Structures are given as structure tokens and as C-alpha cells.
Amino acid sequence: MNVTLLAIVGGVIILALASYAGYLLLQLKKQKELQQHHTKLAIDKRNANIFENVRILCMAGIQGQCDLSEISIRVYNIMDYVQGEERFDFDKEFPATSELYHLVKDMARGDDRQQLAKKERMKQNLERHKAESRLEQTVIEELKQLQEKVQPLNNQINIQMI
Predict the structure, then answer these.
(1) Among 12, 31, 111, 147, which residue carries the largest CB count within 10 Å?
(2) How many of the other CB atoms lie within 10 Å of CB of 63?
(3) How large is the average pLDDT for residues 72-85?
(4) CA proximity to 62, closest of 148, 134, 156, 128
(5) What average pLDDT does the chain have?
(6) Among 51, 103, 41, 106, residue whose Cα is nearest residue 79
(7) For residue 74, how many C-alpha atoms fall within 13 Å in the half-sphere facing its CB?
(8) What are the DSSP calls for 10-66, one per residue?
(9) How many Å separate Cα 105 from the centre of its chain?
(10) DSSP classification of residue 73
(11) pTM of the predicted model, to two decimals?
């Protein structure tokens, strides 16, 4: 009788522990799904912010409010931060903007430019203006295409902590 009673008690304990383990596994699965959902929302929100900034930069370039070389540097660099399925090959889809970026990316800008000798600064200005004038129309067309491309992707998401 004692052996039977101990076997029953042991079986109940094992069943209780197995049920609790199953419950914990279910909770873990729910937690992982929730984390994946929040990660996707965070990526979507970040991408939406990037696309809004790119849209504004494109508008500035199209309207001539900023040098095309500066726009190409900013747009190329910011698009590198896009994550997930919305990421695309910028060099392949926008070759003129990419070419302008690669031509001017190593040229001095801002305070570094002021530190250059006048002759070097004039040389860089000449190279930049030649590249901008040669690629101007193509880059503006590509900026229009990019602006249209990121507009539907720019779905602003409001995330609130619960």
C-alpha cells in the first residue's frame, strides 16, 4: 500500500511539474512573439523617420535649396541605415546620385574645407562643380524617383509603452 501511495504521489508531483513546465514554455513563446512584434514596430518606426528625412532632403535637392553634392552625401549615408525588407541597393537603383556621392565623399567639407590651402580648395570646387553640372539633370530625376519610392513606405507609427 505504501508503494502504491508513493507512486501516486510521485505521479501527481511529476504531472504538476510537467504542467508548470508546459505553462512556462507557453509564456516564453508569447514573450518571444511580443519581442519580435516590438522589434518590427521599432524598425518600422525608425525606417519611417529615415524615409521622412530622405523625402525632405530630396525636396531640397529638387528645389535647388542645397548643392547636389551635399544632398547626395546625406541621402546616400542616411539610406544606409534603413533596416529590414525596405532596404535596397542604392548604387544599383540610383547610379548618378551614387556616382556623385563617390566623387565628392572624400572632399573636405565644413571647417575642414576652410583649413585647406586656397589652391586645393579651388581644385576641389572645380571637381565638384564639374561633377554636379554633368550629373545635375540625372540626379534631380533620381531624387524625384527616390522621393516617390519612399513616400508610400513612410507610414508613421505611433508607439506607446503599455
Answers:
(1) 147
(2) 10
(3) 89
(4) 148
(5) 86
(6) 51
(7) 19
(8) HHHHHHHHHHHHHHHHHHHHHHHHHHHHHHHHHHHHHHHHHHHHHHHHHHHHHTTSS
(9) 20
(10) H
(11) 0.73
Q: Is 71 exposed, middle or buried (0-12, 13-18, 19+ CB in 10 A)?
A: buried
pLDDT at 32 exceeding the cut of 80: yes
Q: Cell numbers 503599455 label which residue? A: 162
**Would you say residue 159 has pLDDT above 70?**
no
Sign, CA dihedral 54-37-84-150, equals: negative
Take residue 6 and report the three cell numbers written for it: 508513493
d(CA 93, CA 160): 35
> Residue 150: is it exposed, middle or buried by C-beta count within 10 angstroms (0-12/13-18/19+)?
buried
Q: Which of 58, 45, 133, 42 is nearest to 94 (CA)?
A: 58
| DSSP letter, residue 107 | S
C-alpha cell at 148: 516617390
Average pLDDT in the 6-29 region? 93
Statement: residue 112 has pLDDT above 60:
yes
**Grid coordinates of 153:** 513606405
Residues in the chain: 162
CA 26 remoteness from chain centre:
33
